[in-house]
Design a protein that fits this description.
heterodimer, A: Four Helix Bundle (Hemerythrin (Met), subunit A), about 75% helix, about 0% strand, B: mainly alpha, 4 helices
Chain lengths: ~180, ~120
């Protein structure tokens, strides 16, 4: 059991290194490819944390579609980023350090990582786990909750995707007919 | 809270802050969107770690298993991943349009053009 947590920490450290590399690199093509690796690593992290469905979605949607969309965009907007100006980085750094310190102070009050009697596991989730095999008759609890108990959430998600698709079409579909196929995913 | 678990949360917050810093300090719009995605993914890690139970199996019913990890955060994050890609697509489409109209997607150059109008 300690091994799972060690793999979890190892993957998180790996993700931190990749994100620092993305931050420092000026070539946008390299940055996008590194971000693809980041998404794939996060998919494996989801698998380690027992969230198989989330891992599949992240691997397909995060590592696949996002990377393709970003590559299509930098093919139109250019792949070089201008170097950072030194004087502009102090304020963001200060904001980030203060926010990070506040959040680290906040997590000290969280319940222990991975304990079965944490408050989050005691209220709604047991109902789903006990009743959904009889009520929905789907062995995967995530599917049962996604498609049945919280079906309205999924409907809302579809509405958001539809709105985003309409927005993308209105933004670039009208004037550039030939590029519609690339960015209208 | 002590032991390895606390490091899980500390590194997640570190990732979150790298994403936030990327959004604020980069002047390129595509780089900002990558930063937004890094931030977003770290929030997903936070939710999934809340749902994790030590020694539990994944949330799929099987013979002989009594302890499952919490399916509710998984459902919420599944929705959030797809919505995140939709918003990224809109952001990228906006940067393509900005490139067409202004000829650049560097934020400081856009500011200069905006104030010279």
């Amino acid at each position: 059991m300690i091994l799972e947590q060690l793999i979890d920490i190892f993957l998180l450290v790996f993700l931190a290194i990749i994100s620092i590399a993305v931050l420092r690199i000026r070539d946008l093509f390299t940055a996008v490819m590194l971000f693809g690796i980041y998404s794939l690593t996060s998919a494996s992290l989801f698998m380690v944390l027992d969230a198989a469905d989330v891992g599949f979605t992240e691997a397909a949607v995060g590592a696949g579609i996002s990377t393709i969309l970003m590559l299509a965009t930098i093919s139109m907007t250019g792949r070089e980023e201008k170097p950072l100006k030194k004087k502009g980085t102090m304020l963001p750094l200060a904001v980030v350090v203060i926010t990070g310190a506040t959040l680290v102070y906040g997590i000290m009050d969280l319940p222990p990582f991975g304990e079965p009697d944490n408050p989050v596991h005691t209220h709604v989730a047991p109902r789903y786990i006990e009743q959904s095999p009889q009520e929905i008759d789907v062995p995967n609890f995530v599917t049962a909750v996604l498609a049945s108990y919280r079906g309205y959430d999924t409907l809302g998600e579809v509405v958001v995707i539809f709105t985003a698709g309409v927005g993308v079409m209105l933004l670039i579909g009208r004037r550039r007919k030939r590029k519609e196929g690339i960015s209208n995913e | 809270m002590s032991g390895l678990g606390v490091w899980n949360y500390v590194i997640i917050i570190f990732l979150m802050m790298i994403g936030l810093y990327m959004v604020m300090s980069s002047s390129n719009l595509v780089k900002k969107l990558i930063g937004l995605n890094v931030f977003q993914t770290s929030v997903f890690f936070l939710y999934i770690s809340f749902g994790y139970i030590e020694g539990a199996t994944g949330p799929v019913m099987q013979e002989g298993a009594s302890l499952y990890s919490n399916p509710l955060p998984h459902v919420l994050i599944l929705t959030a991943i797809v919505v995140g890609v939709a918003t990224t697509a809109v952001g990228l489409a906006l940067s393509v349009r900005i490139k067409e109209s202004f000829g650049t997607i560097e934020e400081d150059e856009l500011h200069t053009m905006d104030s010279s109008l």
